[in-house]
Write a structure and sequence with these properties.
The chain is of the alpha+beta class. The chain starts with 7 loop residues before the first helix and ends with a helix.
C-alpha cells in the first residue's frame, strides 16, 4: 500500500497517476480487448486510490474510478428532456420486409445530389437503450429512452459500469451525446441465476429484464454487483457538425475516445446483401457474450439520413430485423418442487426431451404456483416451450385441445417438500388457507430454519459476525466438517456439541490444536450471545437484526416471546386498526396502552407468530436450551423505559472515524437501543453524523449536504456520559 503520510503534492501526483492508469486499464479491456493488467492488480490499485482519496477528501473528483460504486442510494428518478428525440426503430421479420424498406429508402433519396445509399448492419443488442451526454469530455448525464422525448436520469447506475468512460480520451466536441445499449452479459446472467437458484430466489427470465431491473435500482453498490456492460451504436446531439459524416466514421471516432462500440458487421448496397448478412449472423450471434434478437440496418451517411427524416415514432433511415423465437411442443411428465437455500419452493417442469435452440431440454421453469394456476397446467399436458432470451427454458402455454382425459392438476405443496415444515404464501391475500385468491401467488416459502435444504447456508449465517459471532466457523470450516467427517452438523444445536468431537476435528486437514481450541472457545462464548443475536441468527422470515433487537427489548426471554399473543407482536399496527378488528385480536374494546415497537406489522407478525408456534421452532429452542445456550434478552427493558422519548429516537445516524470510548458496533447497538437507525452511508435523509478521528469522505459528504455533525464529546454529553 502506498504511504499515506507524505506531502500533499506527492499525494496529488499519485492520485492522478492511479486515476489515469485505471482509466487506461478500462479502455484496454473494454474497447481494445487487450488487457494491460490482471483483475487483482486492478483491484489493488483501485483500493489504494480509494484509501488516498479518503485520507485527502480535498482532492476528491466525481469522475474518479472510485466513484463508480461510491455514490449514495438515490431517493427516486428525475426526468429530463432529450435534446434530440430518442425514437424506436421499426421492426421487420422477413426478406420481403427488408426488400420493401430498401425500395422506400431509394425512392426517398431520388435526385442527383444523393448517390446510391450504402447500408451498414450491426447486431441488435437486447438490452436497455441509454443516451450518454458528455460535456467538455466528462460524463454529465445518462438518460433512459423513456417516452422518446423525456427519459429517467440513471447517471448513478451508468457510472458503475466500468466499460463506460467517465472522461473521454482526447479532444471531443463541447457536447457529445452517445447512444447505446446497456446489457447484462450472458456469462453474468448465468452467474446471477446460479446464485439466485442457490439462494432459493426466482430466476430472472432473460438478461434484458434483469438489466432493466438493475438500472432502476436506487443503490449504486447493488447495481455494480451485476457487472453490466455497454456498447455504443448511435448519436444524439453533437455541438460540432464536422465531428463525423457517417455512422461508420462516428463509430470510429468515439471508439478512439475510449467508448466501447457495437461495430458494423458488414456493409451492403442492396437488399440481397443485407439478407445475406442476416442469414450469416443467425448462428454467429449465439457465440456473443450478450443477447441479440436481430440486426439493425441503417443508411450509413448522415446527410442521407437527414434527407430521409423520421416519422413520429421511427427514423425512416433504419430498420431492425428480428429473428423468430424457437418454440417446441412436448409433454409434461412431472413437476419437481425444489426448495432453495432460503426456503423458497419453486415448481420445475420435467418434460419429454426436446431439441430447442440447439440444445436438448428436459426441464423448464414454471416460475411460481400462481402462474401454474393462471396457465391451467396439468400433469400429462402437451405444452409449448420456449427459451427466454434463448437461455432459460420456460413453459409458454398449454395445448388445451390435446389434454388427455387422465391429466391431473398440479397441487402446490401445503408443507415443505424437504422437511414437512410450515410454508408461507406471498402475497398474504393469495393464501387460499385464509380465503385468498391463489391466482395471485408469487412465492411459497418454507419457514423452518433447520430445513435440510437450507441447512448449510443457515449454519453459515448463524455463526457469522452480527449473529452468534463464532470465530473460526466460516463457510470453509462448515463445509469441511460436513463433507470430510462423520461429525453431525445439521442443526444449530449441533454447533454447540462440537466440543464432544475434538479428536475428530483435529483429524481434519489444517485443523491443529490451537485452531480447534480457539473454535471451541468461541462456540462456548456464543452461548451467552443473548436472545437478540440468537433470533437474528436463526434466519426467521421477517426477523433481521433490527427486528430481533426490538423484540429483545420488549420480551425478557424466548419463553415470554413464545407466550405472547399475536397482537402483542404488533401493538402499533393493532392500534391503527378499526375497533372491531382490535376487539377480535385482543378480546377487548379498549384502546391499547402498549405502543412499544417490535419491528413487526400486520403482514409480517402473523408469519413470525406461525413459526414461533411451530413444532420446528419448539424443537430448535429446546435443543439449544439443552446445550446451555442462553435464551434470555440482554436488551430487555420494562415498557415504561423504552426509548420513545430518546433524543436519538427516529433519527438516521451515520458513524465515521475512530472513537475513543466506543467500538463502532458497540455504539451502533447502543444508539439502536435508543431508537435510532444507524446507516453505513451518508445521504440527504441522514439526520446526524457522529465524527471520530480520521473520518474520511463521509464527513465531507455530510458537510456538503449541510447535515449536523457531532464530535465524541457532544455525543457523550447527549448520552449522559460526561
Amino acid at each position: 500500500m502506498y504511504d499515506l503520510h507524505v506531502s500533499t503534492p506527492d499525494i496529488r501526483k499519485r492520485i492522478e497517476s492511479l486515476r489515469t492508469r485505471l482509466e487506461q486499464a478500462n479502455r484496454a479491456y473494454y474497447v481494445d480487448a487487450s488487457p494491460i493488467m490482471s483483475d487483482r492488480e486492478y483491484d489493488e490499485l483501485l483500493n489504494e486510490l480509494a484509501a488516498l482519496e479518503a485520507e485527502h477528501p480535498e482532492l476528491a473528483d466525481e469522475h474518479s474510478p472510485t466513484r463508480r460504486v461510491g455514490g449514495e442510494p438515490i431517493d427516486g428518478f428525475e426526468q429530463y428532456p432529450h435534446t434530440v428525440p430518442m425514437l424506436s426503430i421499426e421492426n421487420s421479420y422477413s426478406a420481403q420486409d427488408i426488400a420493401a424498406w430498401v425500395e422506400r429508402v431509394r425512392r426517398g433519396l431520388e435526385g442527383e445530389l444523393f448517390a446510391s445509399p450504402v447500408f451498414v448492419c450491426d447486431p441488435k443488442i437486447d438490452g436497455v437503450a441509454i443516451c450518454l451526454r458528455y460535456e467538455h469530455g466528462l460524463l454529465a448525464r445518462a438518460l433512459t429512452r423513456g417516452d422518446g422525448t423525456r427519459g429517467d436520469d440513471v447517471t448513478h447506475a451508468i457510472r458503475t459500469i466500468r466499460s463506460v468512460p467517465l472522461r473521454l480520451f482526447g479532444p471531443a466536441p463541447e457536447v457529445l451525446e452517445i447512444r447505446g445499449e446497456v446489457f447484462l452479459p450472458t456469462s453474468e446472467f448465468e452467474r446471477i441465476n446460479r446464485q439466485r437458484e442457490m439462494q432459493g430466489d426466482e430466476l430472472f427470465m432473460n438478461p434484458r429484464n434483469a438489466c432493466a431491473g438493475t438500472i432502476k435500482q436506487l443503490d449504486p453498490a447493488a447495481i455494480a454487483e451485476r457487472r453490466l456492460g455497454f456498447l455504443a451504436h448511435g448519436r444524439g446531439f453533437i455541438s460540432d457538425d464536422g465531428f463525423a459524416q457517417s455512422h461508420t466514421e462516428f463509430i470510429d471516432a468515439i471508439r478512439a475516445l475510449g467508448v466501447p462500440t457495437n461495430r458494423p458487421l458488414a456493409t451492403a448496397t442492396d437488399a440481397q446483401g443485407i439478407i445475406d448478412t442476416i442469414e450469416a449472423f443467425a448462428n454467429e450471434r449465439h457465440k456473443l457474450d450478450y443477447d441479440t434478437d436481430g440486426l439493425v440496418v441503417r443508411v450509413d451517411r448522415f446527410d442521407q439520413q437527414t434527407r430521409l427524416g423520421s416519422t413520429s415514432k421511427s427514423p425512416r433511415w433504419a430498420i431492425a430485423y428480428k429473428y423468430p423465437a424457437e418454440r417446441k411442443k412436448t409433454r409434461l411428465l412431472a413437476v419437481e418442487h425444489q426448495v432453495g437455500k432460503t426456503g423458497k419452493i419453486t415448481p420445475r417442469a420435467v418434460m419429454e426431451p426436446v431439441l430447442l435452440a440447439g440444445t436438448t431440454v428436459r426441464h423448464a421453469t414454471l416460475h411460481n404456483y400462481g402462474i401454474v394456476r393462471q396457465k391451467d397446467i396439468h400433469l400429462g399436458d402437451t405444452i409449448e416451450v420456449e427459451k427466454a432470451g434463448e437461455i432459460i427454458p420456460y413453459v409458454v402455454a398449454v395445448v388445451i385441445d390435446q389434454r388427455p382425459s387422465d391429466a391431473v392438476p398440479i397441487e402446490p405443496p401445503q408443507q415443505c417438500p424437504a422437511c414437512r415444515g410450515p410454508v408461507e404464501i406471498e402475497p398474504p391475500e393469495a393464501d387460499p388457507r385464509h380465503g385468498g385468491d391463489p391466482l395471485l401467488e408469487t412465492s411459497r416459502r418454507c419457514l423452518n430454519p433447520e430445513c435440510p435444504a437450507q441447512v448449510r447456508e443457515k449454519l453459515i449465517w448463524f455463526a457469522g459476525r452480527g449473529q452468534m459471532d463464532i470465530e473460526g466457523l466460516g463457510e470453509q470450516t462448515i463445509d469441511q466438517i460436513r463433507e470430510q467427517s462423520d461429525i453431525p452438523l445439521d442443526h444449530f444445536a449441533d454447533i454447540f456439541k462440537l466440543k464432544h468431537h475434538r479428536d475428530a476435528l483435529l483429524a481434519l486437514d489444517r485443523m491443529g490444536e490451537k485452531k480447534v481450541d480457539n473454535l471451541l472457545a468461541s462456540i462456548e462464548r456464543a452461548k451467552d450471545a443473548g436472545m437478540a443475536r440468537l433470533l437474528a441468527g436463526l434466519g426467521i422470515r421477517h426477523v433481521g437484526a433490527a427486528t430481533a433487537k426490538a423484540l429483545a427489548r420488549v420480551f425478557p426471554d424466548i419463553d415470554a416471546l413464545l407466550e405472547a399473543e399475536l397482537w402483542q407482536l404488533m401493538p402499533m399496527a393493532v392500534n391503527r386498526m378499526p375497533r372491531q378488528r382490535r376487539k377480535e385480536l385482543t378480546g377487548s374494546e379498549e384502546e391499547l396502552s402498549e405502543t412499544y415497537e417490535t419491528g413487526l406489522g400486520a403482514d409480517t407478525a402473523p408469519v413470525v407468530y406461525e413459526f414461533l408456534h411451530s413444532e420446528a421452532a419448539r424443537r430448535t429452542f429446546d435443543e439449544l436450551r439443552a446445550q446451555g445456550v442462553s435464551l434470555a434478552s440482554k436488551e430487555y427493558a420494562t415498557r415504561g423505559d423504552l426509548p420513545a422519548e430518546s433524543a436519538f429516537a427516529g433519527k438516521r445516524i451515520v458513524i465515521t472515524g475512530t472513537l475513543d470510548r466506543y467500538e463502532r458496533n458497540e455504539l451502533k447497538d447502543l444508539l439502536e437501543s435508543l431508537g435510532a437507525k444507524v446507516s453505513g452511508s451518508v445521504s440527504s435523509r441522514t439526520d446526524l453524523v457522529i465524527v471520530g478521528a480520521s473520518p474520511g469522505s463521509k464527513l465531507a459528504k455530510a458537510q456538503q449536504l449541510g447535515i449536523e455533525t457531532w464530535d465524541e464529546q457532544r455525543l457523550l454529553q447527549a448520552l449522559g456520559k460526561e
